[in-house]
Amino acid sequence: MSETKLLLNAYYEALHERLEANKDLLTAQIERLLQAEFENRDFGSINQEKYNAYRNACLAFIDERIEMYNPIGIQYTFDSTGRRQAFELELQLNFYDSRAEFKALVEAAKSKAQPDMGEQELRELAVDLISEVGAFPDKSIISAYKAGPALSKLPDYITARAIEEIVTST
Q: What is the DSSP letter of 46?
């Protein structure tokens, strides 16, 4: 396994640990961000039932993202078999294009990776990588939402914002 791939795996593992440890904070952030977004955008009439549906979608997306970063499952994200096809399919299904952000993540990992990194060094470099680039694919989600806010994009956006606030503050 290349040094870059090792560092990317450590990056995802660090994200998984950070988000898993801060699920309660993520829930509180979602509440705050979702309420603010409904107050600041003209999305029409939002009753409590609709609000709860968006809240529940955000919470489900948090669980999905935590699982995506799970070190046990991350091997499937970076496994070379079908990786390109899965990535292209995801791009077609998403409202955001994360290719440039992923490229920046890989380049940042390449620049930090060193031969014979020990576990502690990998962990420290992963934390540095998170500080530098955030949690992939949050920047893509946030910028696409800001370019064209819509209710259909709201759960992804709120989730990305909550995650970024947690990973940059802890």
A: -
DSSP code for 146 = H
Specify burial of residue 67 (Cβ count, 10 A radius: 0-12, 13-18, 19+).
middle
CB burial class (10 A; 0-12, 13-18, 19+) of residue 156?
buried
Nearest CA among 59, 65, 40, 38 for reference residue 134: 65
Question: Rounded CA gap, 91 and 137, in Å?
Answer: 11
Q: How many domains does the chain have?
A: 1
The three-state secondary structure class of 147 is helix
* Angle at the Cα of 164 from the Cα atoms of 161 and 167, rounded to 5 degrees: 150
Give 34-52 pLDDT, tens digit per residue.
999 999 998 888 899 999 9
Q: Is 89 exposed, middle or buried (0-12, 13-18, 19+ CB in 10 A)?
A: exposed
Cα(97)–Cα(17) distance, integer angstroms: 26
Q: Token digits for 92? A: 């077609």
**Whole-prediction pTM value?**
0.87
Residue 148 belongs to domain spanning: 3-169
Residue 145 CB-density burial (10 A; 0-12 exposed, 13-18 middle, 19+ buried) = buried
